[in-house]
Amino acid sequence: MSRRGAILQDYGGHIPAQDFTAQRDAASYYQRDKELAAQQQQQQQTAKQKEGKDATDYITGLKNDPTGINEVDTWDDTMLLREQNKMLEMQNQGKTLQDIKIYAMNVLPKLDKTSKLTKAYKDQIDKGLVDVEKTYGNGVDIAAYRNKAYKKLADDLFERDEKGAIVKDKDFEVIPKNKNYIAEIEDDEESLGTVFKLGGALADNIKKLPTPNISKSDDVRGKDGRLRYNGFTGQGSVFVEQDIDPETNVIKGLKYKSEKVPLGNNPDGTTNYAEVMPDDEFGILTQTPAAKKEFDIMFREHLRKGNIDPTKLDSRAKQTLKKAYALEWVKESNIDGSAFNPKMRDIQPLPPKNITNVRVNTGGAPVPVMDIVTPVRSYFENVGNQKEGLKGVAQLNMFNNEVTTPIMEEVKKRYPSVTADNIYYQKSGNDIWVMKAEETDESGKIKVNQQKDTPIFKLDDFSNVTGNKPQGVKSKNKALTTAQEGEANRSGKVSPKPKKDPLGLGF
Known about the structure:
The chain is of the alpha+beta class.
């Protein structure tokens, strides 16, 4: 019998059944716990991934509110990016979104406060520039003004390195909270010629001033008791006044109003005076902000050409130099529109004088009779073409002493200090007038100004003097030659011929 059979025989041929319920339940619980743990792990992983994504979205979603100033916005973006990188590093270190938000709450408000202040200042600058453009028109570069104002604002917000690059924010507490950048630039002399420019405002201001018609036609008596006709027409201006001859009381022209102001001492200890435009006229000249700014630009350039540093001038000296330059500029530009046109008429001719018996020879030879009028008339008849505006003009000292001496004797009765260099002949129609020039150039040559120079008397007053007699063509030519070449002097040397153009007038 086999062993199997024996076993079955032992148990009566039946094996009792075992109970596996507990084992199945245990296995079921294990599987359930395993699945639950996996599920929880998955949920935790999902939650972590979501938090990481939320943190990333939060960090990368942080944005600056642009101020509109490029330099400021560029720096703000750089600073925000720096803080975002710090937050991402916190995330990598396992910090929660809540941790990151707490950090952001500590740093972002500081950036936000500065940004709000910057935008407020930008708004102030932009609105101020609208008024600036209305005030100065073509005399201001608005783009340059805006850039300079933005730059000054940025200088108050940031610290820079030696190259001008921004390196860090200034503490909010030290940033000015009530500053006017528009006014600061407007008052800054460094803005002259850069932000502010020449736009014609000064000339426009002067041209708007009145230039009333002026005229006079009456007789005045001079200190010598003689009546003279005082007649003229023209235009006045706020910058000029009548120029009255103290000897004759004749209004001989217009002169620019001026006053003398002490300006330090000369090396010898005497007071140095400057001739300046009076305060009232200077105020009118620069009465608009645009005209004043343009004048300041011109004055600054004037100082630069003279190698004068305006920053080293005290306010009083600077104002004096301004008014001196104003007077000089108005004189040279003649922009004020003033004009003076004299009317020539002498109501009381000079008495006849025997001035023709002048010795023009040497030794004991007979004295010839010489006509001092004919040489001058002959000169004008034979002079040829002259420059426009200088026709009919000849300086007195072009002629020899025999012709000029009688004229100068009469002139000096009226103007004792005048010299022959300041006297010239002016042909007006058929008359020849003896004129006194009022100005000379740096070389001493007269400046002919037919409107402002003073008529003294007509040369024709000498034409009917006793001893004058008519001359033929030959005599006239000889007289002209004698007058223009001069006689042999006492040493026997021949006087040189006068220069062709002694006045430098080009004729």
